[in-house]
Amino acid sequence: MRHLAFRKITVGAHSRPFALGWKIINEPFMERATSFMSELKLRLGYGITGQQDISDSYFPYMPLFTIGYPTASYPFGDQYYYTIRPNGYDPNIKWEETTTWNAGIDFGFLNNRITGSLDYYYRETNDLISRIPVPAGSNLTNEIYTNVGRCATRVSNSIFKQKLSIIKILLGIWV
User: Fold this and answer.
1) How far apart are CA 112 and CA 166, in angstroms?
2) 70 Cβ contact partners less than 8 Å away, ≥ 6 residues apart
3) Distance between CA 59 and CA 63 in Å, rounded?
4) 20 FRET partner, CA 20 to 30 A, in 7, 106, 131, 158?
5) Buried b vs exposed e over 27-58: b needs ≥16 C-beta within 10 Å?
């Protein structure tokens, strides 16, 4: 149950994903085009995903304690007792969230003997998680996992990824 690893206030981004498709070729205004065009479809999609698997600790947002090493034990009488030390933590850490948009057009000609698609993807990640050094004395460790920033990606440098497939050609004869 790793998804319970964050405070209730930051757990479970409410993703409302959707995907839509419109077969334009089936519309009445495309009747004349069906003599040479066999497929024309518009696709749109949107979604948000979260990344909560960030460290070896199930609770990176709360103070935890670790039993110290034998070399850090204290003698009391003839017995040595281990110390208990606090671990570093970030009380404000949140899930990484990646928002993705995509759009595409599928097309086919000559009874789908020639097919292809144009696709565009945009992906933006917020609240990136990284292990960073912290100033001495500001936390209980030298490094903590925390949210550090955001990045955005557009497939093929914001241009359409093109794919054209010619199928069902055998020895130069249409099958």
Assistant:
1) 9
2) 80, 82
3) 8
4) 158
5) eeeeeeeeeebbbbbeeeebebebebebeeee
